[in-house]
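queue> pop job 88
queue> type: inverse folding (structure -> sequence)
queue> payload:
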């Protein structure tokens, strides 16, 4: 079997095991058995358990970012771009629950260097959403409209909400990716649209 195919087989087994059992509880023996290979072969290809887990984080993060970016067509109105990105995000996390568990639950709870690896993913997603919000502001005002600090804060809030909602959707039977995306659009877009037109909330 070609090395790339064998390595994918082991990585798939590792993501499933880490996602379902957790990093600490997962063993290289389990991963090797699930992949149908010997444990020495897993070590030969992927070195240590820590390096294997890091490789899983990077692979799942790359797949998620690529799925979201591929779904968004730059020429669409800003709300349609955001809708497409959210649907892609929730579809990917629903279709890959073990990968999402590795990224959202396991990696973040294991300290360094894993937290930093997930931080790279989050920065990419936040940067992408920041761009979408910037597009919306330009559509509304024909100029940047909102201060950069406000746009960055909104992007952080939106990504945080998407992460939390994906975890809830994956644990709640019957919640589709479309429904999760619609929930977040209803929650976020009305507020964003008001902001774009200068109708922000003011404390009294």
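queue> result:
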């Amino acid at each position: 079997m070609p090395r790339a195919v064998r390595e994918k087989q082991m990585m798939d087994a590792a993501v499933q095991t880490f996602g379902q059992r957790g990093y600490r509880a997962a063993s290289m023996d389990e991963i090797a058995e699930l992949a149908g290979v010997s444990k020495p072969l897993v070590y030969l290809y992927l070195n240590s358990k820590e390096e294997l887990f890091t490789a899983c984080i990077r692979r799942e993060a790359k797949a998620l970012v690529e799925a979201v970016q591929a779904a968004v067509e730059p020429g669409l109105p800003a709300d349609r771009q955001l809708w497409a990105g959210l649907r892609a995000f929730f579809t990917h996390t629903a279709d890959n629950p073990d990968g999402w568990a590795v990224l959202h639950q396991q990696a973040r709870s294991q300290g360094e260097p894993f937290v930093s690896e997930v931080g790279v993913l989050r920065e990419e997603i936040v940067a992408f959403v920041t761009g979408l919000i910037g597009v919306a502001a330009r559509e509304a005002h024909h100029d940047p409209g909102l201060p950069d600090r406000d746009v960055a804060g909104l992007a952080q809030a939106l990504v945080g909400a998407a992460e939390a909602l994906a975890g809830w959707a994956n644990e709640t039977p019957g919640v589709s990716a479309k429904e999760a995306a619609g929930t977040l659009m209803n929650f976020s877009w009305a507020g964003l649209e008001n902001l774009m037109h200068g109708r922000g909330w003011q404390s009294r």
